[in-house]
Every structure is written in C-alpha cells, then in structure tokens.
C-alpha cells in the first residue's frame, strides 16, 4: 500500500507540473475582505475583495495583486502582475509594477509617474492568465514530454506493484461508460463547489489545495486506467509487448491523444474533458481500484468475484 501511495503522489506531481510556485504564493497570500488596511509587505499574493487597501512607498508585494472589489492605492512596488477586475485601483507617481497591469473592469487611475514594466493591457482574455503568461510552443512540448514520461513510468510501476487496481478501474470504464461519466460529472461538480466554498472562507485555502491535489491524483489514476485499456487492446493485436510495457505504452498513447484532441477547435476540448470525467467516475466507482464495480439494482455497488489472472 505504501508503494501505491508513492506512485500516486508521483503521478499527481506530473499532472500539477508548474503550479507549485503559484500555490506557495497563495499560502502566503494577504486577503482583504473589508475595512481599512495598510499593507507593509508580503512575499505572497495580494487578493482584495472589499475594503480599502493602501500599499505605501516602502512596501512591496512579492507576488500578484488581484483586485476583485474595494479600493486599492499603490504607492509601493509589486513584483508580479496586477489584475484589476472590479473596484477602484490607483497607481500613484511612486508606484512600480514589474509585471503587467491587466484592467478588465472598475475604475483605474494611473499617475504619469507610475511605472508598469509589462505595460497596461485592457483585455478580458489576458485577465484570465492569473498565474503567468501562456508558455511558448517549445515550453508546452517539453512539459508535455516530461508529463508523458512520468505517467508512463507510474503506469509501469503500478502494473508491477498493484495490477488489479488498474484492471478494476479500466473494467468500469469499458463496461459501464455511461455510469462512469455520470459519476464523474457529479463528483467534479460537488468537488468544485466545495473547493470554491473553502477558498472563499480564506482560512480553508490550505484544505482546498489538498483537495485540488486529490482531484489531480484521481484524474491521473483515471488516465492510467485509460492507458490500461489502450495498452491491453494493442497487446491483443500483437502491436506492443505484453504485460507492464503494454500499459505504459498505452498510457503514453492516451496522454498524447489527449493533447492532440484537446487542440482541435470547437469539439476537441469537450471530448478530452468527457474522457477525463469518465476516468474520474471510474476511479470513484471502484475506490481507486480497491473493488470491482458491478451494478446491482439502482444506486448500489455490489462486490463480484474477479476472474483469476494468468
């Protein structure tokens, strides 16, 4: 079981590649909900939902500044980007923003002496890039190659150490796709609502991060189940070696297919999302492959004898 936990953690890290820095900044974030605040300094992000916030000349924000409401006056330094989505934002003559200032709503006043290194962008699409600018094609390909390699290694290890978990989950995907999609959609909806509720309470942000990591682990495990299905199919046709190698190759093939399909305009993203939702549902139905899923009546899960492995 300990090996299974280690493998699952590695898979989650592969999926969450590039989000660690933002999460660290979020854990050190300063959040203003109401009242008057004079911020001296923070190494994390600054989120302003309401109230009045002043950043004096000697103060520095080490991360992002996101203004969702209230009134913010910046006379100090912001190391990251500033996203102005609503409320009032003022940059005085002494203000310095090393990143971009993305203005998508509210009242904005920028003094002539204020410095904005990345320029002022009035674009709603740019405002959605809360973490960092979109990576280049080369960066995306390199990151994708690393993720695919890690997932293939995790699939190889899981097939050797806990093969039945992947078999049970892939069986649920293959034999009960409609149930898997329904359960996955329900789980994703409930999970997202809970995560948003925890984030808005501020003090539960660390719990929300743990919940997000759990989602990543579940989806990653579901990808391994898809890879098992594909690998076994390729093995039956004699196109790939058998055993653990087939599952690893199938997982890599599925990850590549996900990237290609999601890039197709209009329907590609929906198809890729549907596959991930089904994978999540299969993981939930089988409890990460701990049990087989066999419908017995309506809304019940019954254990069934498993076929013996050769």
C-alpha-based Rg, rounded = 24 Å
Beta-strand fraction estimate: 5-15%
Strand-and-helix sequence, N→C? HHEEEEEEEEEEEEEEEEHHHHHHH
| Sheet having the most strands | 6 strands, parallel
Mean pLDDT equals 80
Q: State the helical fraction.
A: 40-55%
Low-pLDDT runs of 5+ residues are 1-27, 298-304
Alpha-beta classification: alpha/beta
Tally the helices: what do you get? 9
Features:
disordered N terminus; single chain; 2 domains; 6-stranded parallel sheet; alpha/beta; 310 residues
Description of the structure:
The chain has 310 residues and is α/β, with parallel strands linked by helices. α6 (177-200) packs across α9. The longest helix is centred in the C-terminal third of the chain and has 32 residues, at 205-236. The model is unreliable at 1-27 and 298-304 (pLDDT under 50). It has a six-stranded parallel beta sheet. Strands 2-5-8-11-14 form a five-stranded parallel beta sheet, with no helix packed on it. The chain has a five-stranded parallel beta sheet with strand order 3-6-9-12-15, with no helix packed on it. It is 51% helix and 15% strand. It is built from nine helices and 16 strands. The two termini are 22 Å apart. The protein folds into two domains: 20-127, no CATH class; 136-286, no CATH class.
What is the topology?
Elements: H1 2-15, H2 20-27, E1 30-32, E2 36-38, E3 41-42, E4 46-48, E5 52-55, E6 60-61, E7 65-67, E8 71-74, E9 77-78, E10 82-84, E11 88-91, E12 96-97, E13 101-103, E14 107-110, E15 115-116, E16 120-121, H3 124-127, H4 137-161, H5 163-175, H6 177-200, H7 205-236, H8 244-262, H9 268-286
Helix pairs in contact: 1-4, 1-7, 4-5, 4-7, 4-8, 5-7, 5-9, 6-7, 6-9, 7-8, 7-9, 8-9
């Amino acid at each position: 079981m300990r090996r299974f936990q280690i493998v699952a953690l590695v898979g989650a890290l592969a999926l969450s590649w590039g989000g660690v820095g933002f999460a660290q900044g979020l854990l050190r974030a300063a959040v203003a909900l109401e009242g008057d605040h004079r911020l001296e300094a923070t190494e994390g992000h600054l989120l302003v939902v309401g109230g009045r916030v002043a950043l004096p000349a000697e103060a520095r924000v080490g991360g992002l500044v996101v203004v969702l409401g209230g009134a913010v006056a910046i006379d100090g330094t912001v190391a990251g980007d500033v996203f102005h989505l609503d409320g009032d934002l003022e940059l005085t003559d002494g203000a310095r923003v090393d990143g971009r200032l993305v203005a998508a709503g509210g009242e904005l006043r920028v003094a002539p002496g204020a410095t904005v290194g990345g320029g002022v962008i009035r674009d709603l699409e740019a405002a959605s890039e809360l973490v960092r600018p979109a990576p280049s094609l080369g960066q995306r390909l390199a990151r994708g190659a690393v993720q695919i390699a890690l997932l293939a290694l995790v699939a190889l290890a899981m097939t050797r150490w806990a093969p039945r978990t992947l078999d049970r989950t892939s069986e649920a995907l293959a034999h009960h796709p409609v149930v898997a999609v329904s359960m996955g959609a329900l789980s994703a909806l409930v999970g997202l609502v809970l995560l948003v509720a925890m984030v808005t309470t501020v003090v539960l942000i660390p719990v929300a991060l743990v919940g997000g990591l759990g989602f990543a682990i579940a989806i990653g495990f579901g990808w391994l189940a898809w890879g098992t299905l594909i690998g076994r199919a390729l093995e039956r046709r004699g196109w790939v070696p058998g055993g653990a190698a087939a599952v690893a190759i199938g997982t890599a093939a599925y990850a590549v297919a996900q990237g290609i399909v999601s890039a197709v305009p209009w329907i590609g993203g929906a198809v890729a999302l549907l596959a991930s939702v089904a994978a999540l549902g299969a993981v939930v139905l089988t409890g990460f492959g701990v049990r087989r899923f066999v419908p017995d009546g309506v809304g019940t899960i019954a254990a069934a004898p498993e076929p013996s492995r050769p």
